[in-house]
Design a protein that fits this description.
276 residues, mainly alpha, 11 helices
């Protein structure tokens, strides 16, 4: 289902994207970083419209069809999703000891690069494998990526430990948190890859953002955080975004089925009118 040379390519994109996102957290508050990264569906919609046939109406490829897909109900859904994230994270609330202007610019650039990298990864995955990936093949693909990551990152960590560049006290490592986060990350990546093999990259991208209002719900129920009216509006906006996307997908699917039926009816009528 995939070549041995393909997992390292996707691993390079994934590592670059993750390092950019983590680096952005050193320069920006988590809420602002999340808000900027939420532009990911915008990049995904643009790349999908340019490089994937399912991202264009009727599978066409001319400029007018690409523009129509960008100004469709799906574009409205992506916009509502980004607005919802902004309302939930409230990045305009500055802390007293906030980052400097140069730090904000650098952090924003890193976060935007991470959002773009995520979009490239999703669209490239869909363009490469289409709908061919089965669950066991997705697991094998991730195992290949994990093996390469263990070799590369493990070698880098061993070198830094041997040179004293990085000090690590194994007794202070929260192993329970490490294993639980690793299992959660593996499950998340499996579901993302399997989702890409069944749905469009934009659908998968919007689906991942549902975790933001779910995190807010966990904070309210467990941590007892305050729930502002702005955040409530953000949750409702994201729900509206998914509703608009579902409606757009249903309309597109119905239109596609109607086109296929018209073609079949036309072919049957042409055969019936042929001279005997």
């Amino acid at each position: 289902a995939f070549k041995a040379s393909q997992p390292p390519r996707f691993l390079f994109i994934a590592l670059t994207t993750n390092f950019s996102y983590i680096a952005a957290l050193h320069y920006l508050p988590a809420s602002l970083n999340t808000a900027i990264f939420s532009s990911n569906p915008v990049f995904t919609l643009l790349l999908q419209s340019l490089f994937l046939p399912e991202g264009r109406p009727n599978g066409g490829g001319d400029q007018s069809q690409v523009c129509s897909s960008l100004w469709s109900g799906k574009a409205l859904s992506v916009t509502l999703s980004v607005v919802g994230v902004l309302l939930i994270t409230e990045p305009w609330h500055d802390s007293g000891d906030g980052p400097t202007r140069s730090s904000r610019i650098l952090g924003a650039a890193l976060s935007l690069f991470a959002a773009l990298g995520t979009s490239i990864y999703q669209v490239y995955f869909k363009r490469t494998f289409g709908d061919q990936m089965k669950p066991e093949e997705v697991g094998l693909f991730l195992a290949h990526m994990g093996g390469w990551a263990s070799i590369l990152l493990g070698s880098g960590l061993a070198f830094m430990l041997s040179r004293g560049i990085y000090l690590l006290n194994l007794s202070e490592v929260p192993w329970a948190m490490v294993f639980s986060s690793s299992l959660s990350s593996a499950l998340f990546n499996f579901l993302i890859k399997f989702g890409l093999s069944r749905e469009t990259p934009v659908t998968t991208s919007l689906g991942t953002q549902i975790g933001i209002p779910l995190n807010l719900l966990v904070d309210v129920l467990i941590v007892h955080s305050h729930f502002h009216w702005c955040q409530a509006a953000g949750v409702l906006t994201m729900l509206l975004s998914f509703s608009v996307w579902h409606h757009s997908e249903a309309v597109a699917r119905k239109s596609g089925d109607l086109s296929v039926k018209l073609l079949e009816d036309g072919a049957k009528s042409s055969l019936s009118t042929e001279p005997q």
